Amino acid sequence: MRPEAIEEAVVICGDNNVDQGEMLSALAVIVAHSEQSIRLLKTRYHDSPAGNAKLKYAQILAVLGDPTGVPTLIAAVDAYDRWDEGVTLTSQRKK
């Protein structure tokens, strides 16, 4: 695949104004060409101001196994204030 097409897919993934189909197509390109995409994603991640685009790049990098965006992911989880009580799961269930 042309390097320009991979770069375009990376740019699309940081855009908040694309429809779901376009986003999924871009993600398919990135996953199919992950070795080339990771370098571009890291550059976009570092060049993006804090916000939704930076978080998207961090999420994609994490899915691809790259830890670059972990601080952003941790900050997003810490900032989320609508957690519920959750469910206690255990292998020691009572019958």
Q: Explain this structure to me?
A:
Helices cover 63% and strands 0% of the residues. With 95 residues, the chain is mostly helical. It has one domain (3-79). The longest helix has 14 residues, at 34-47. It is elongated and about 60 Å long. The relative contact order is 0.12. The model has no long low-confidence stretch (mean pLDDT 93).
Please outline what is shown here.
The protein is mainly alpha-helical and 95 residues long. Helices cover 63% and strands 0% of the residues. The chain has one domain.
Distance between the termini: 57 Å
> What is the number of strand segments?
0
Shape: elongated
The mean pLDDT is: 93
Count up the domains. Answer: 1
Largest beta-sheet details: none
What is the succession of H and E elements? HHHHH
Our estimate of the beta-strand percent is under 5%
Quickly count the helices.
Answer: 5
Decide which structural class fits the backbone: mainly alpha
- Low-confidence segments: none
Specify Rg, calculated over alpha carbons: 17 Å
Helix content: 55-70%
